[in-house]
Design brief:
Length: about 70
């Protein structure tokens, strides 16, 4: 019983989490590379809260420029 749980965690759950993390990071890096900022807020949100670098937008929850307080990816 315990062995099957450990095998499930090691061979199914952890690779799935790792793949999804890598996909999210690569997607955000690609959007930044082509010049489009990712305005979704989430646990991996880089930048200054929704507005891109050099932007006059403050971002954050009550912002009218994107940002927001929605869920993650």
């Amino acid at each position: 019983m315990i062995e099957s749980l450990i095998l499930f965690l090691v061979f199914i759950l952890l690779p799935g989490l790792l793949i999804s993390f890598v996909v999210i990071v690569l997607r955000r890096a690609w959007l930044r590379l082509i010049g489009r900022e990712d305005h979704k807020s989430g646990p991996l949100h880089f930048g200054n809260g929704g507005g891109g670098s050099g932007s006059s937008c403050g971002g954050g929850c009550g912002s009218s420029c994107g940002g927001g307080c929605g869920g993650g990816d």
